[in-house]
Amino acid sequence: MLIFGSMAITLALSIPIFAVMGICAILALHNVKMDLITVPQNVFEALDSFALLAVPFYVLAGNLMKSGGISRRLIALAIALVGWIRGGVGAASVLTCMFFSTMSGSSSATTAAVGGTMIPAMEDKGYPTPFAAALVAVGGELGAIIPPSLPMVIYGLVANVSIGSLFIAGILPGIFVGLTLMLAVCMMAKLKNFDEVKRVSPREWLHGLATTGGEAVLALLMPVIILGGIYSGVFTATEASVVAVVYGLVIGAFVYKEIRPKDLVAIFNESAVMTGMVMLIVGFAALFGYALTVNRVPHHLGELIGHIASGPVVFLLLVNVLLFVIGTFMEALATILILAPILAPIAQTYGIDLVHFGIVMIINVATGMVTPPVAVNLTIASQISGVSMDAMTRPLLVFLAVLTLDALVISFVPALSLGLL
């Protein structure tokens, strides 16, 4: 009770999540008379990991893509593909998020890269600004689902699961979530009577597709190189992050020529700040997890779930509900770091594949990125669009319903996650 009581108080005081976990862990360790020298030891041990090297490189790669003209070309390709149907500009926003997610590894980077262009484009087609902002925020969560994905790296690290397998397993669920969101947008456009159809002949459509596709082909090669290299064994998921940086820099600076030497300072600075935030969360979440273990919280939680869950179906339902609730007030990486070591062993006892379970966790924590009050993606979309988070709530409910159904389908249809393995 001390741990969760102190967590509730510190969260209510709007203390940053890494500090919340650190404070709660120190109180919990002091409560059982543990030597507090274990605090820095656990933090540094958590960060001393080869797999975690992928984090700064994927963050940097995403920022290089955003600044190097890659996101603009992907947006043009997406509009050429689906912009001619009713709700096509909204669907193109989701499709662009899917494209960008194959390179960025981050939902916040995806939201920021796509939102600046697509929110005004949707406004011009008659979409209400709150709807457009909510859609980009929801589409941005695909950055956590479609590989390469930072949450997948973190889950693989703490659950001792192959990161490469997780990347392959995330492809079909990511496509499935993206397609359902595109379908929802098209249905809403028809019901609300916005984004009128512009007639395009097959010849015009093919010409536009060929033009934009030719300009974006180098951008689209990147996920092929990354996932192909991992799947073929040429390099590991961590090494792939370095390949992504080099590729993004070469394309942005020397091919598209949109990254100048003076731009690199801002790109490196933004990447360093974001990496620092992620690493603080990782380090203190590991400490928090250690404090939970010392206080036997995982043991008691496992017993409780064991009593309630009569089988894998009930267990997965409980996990979906638990992660949805926790996602409303806790950052995604922190949720994975704290709960994956607790829930993954229990999932294994029910015969659930840990790669499949990892995708279930990631789908749910990604949804948490758009559920207030934390809602990182909503905050970014709000800053870009100038509308408040409260104004986005009503259109957001439709997308949350879609995401909830998607999470249930992915939970109970393991073939979606494991079909490509």
Descriptive overview:
With 421 residues, this protein is an all-alpha fold. It is 79% helix and 0% strand. The chain contains 22 helices and no strands. The protein is globular and about 70 Å long. The protein starts with a helix and ends with a helix. The mean pLDDT is 84.
Following the backbone from N to C, one meets helices and strands in this order, namely: HHHHHHHHHHHHHHHHHHHHHH
Intertermini distance = 42 Å
Oligomer class = single chain
Strand content: under 5%
Class inferred from helices and paired strands:
mainly alpha
Overall shape: globular
| Fraction of residues in H or I helices | over 70%
Please report the number of helical segments. Answer: 22
Count of DSSP strands: 0
Rg calculated over all Cα atoms: 21 Å
- Main beta-sheet annotation: none
Mean pLDDT: 84
Low-confidence stretches: none
Secondary structure layout:
Layout: H1 2-12, H2 17-31, H3 38-47, H4 54-67, H5 70-82, H6 88-104, H7 107-124, H8 129-140, H9 142-145, H10 150-159, H11 163-169, H12 171-192, H13 202-232, H14 237-255, H15 261-294, H16 297-308, H17 312-327, H18 332-349, H19 354-368, H20 376-385, H21 393-412, H22 415-418
Helix pairs in contact: 1-2, 2-15, 3-15, 4-14, 4-15, 5-6, 5-13, 6-7, 6-8, 6-12, 7-8, 7-20, 8-20, 8-21, 10-18, 10-19, 12-21, 13-14, 15-18, 16-18, 17-18, 17-19, 17-21, 18-19, 19-21
Features:
0% strand; 421 residues; 22 helices; mainly alpha; 79% helix
Brief overview:
The chain has helices spanning 2-12, 17-31, 38-47, 54-67, 70-82, 88-104, 107-124, 129-140, 142-145, 150-159, 163-169, 171-192, 202-232, 237-255, 261-294, 297-308, 312-327, 332-349, 354-368, 376-385, 393-412, 415-418.
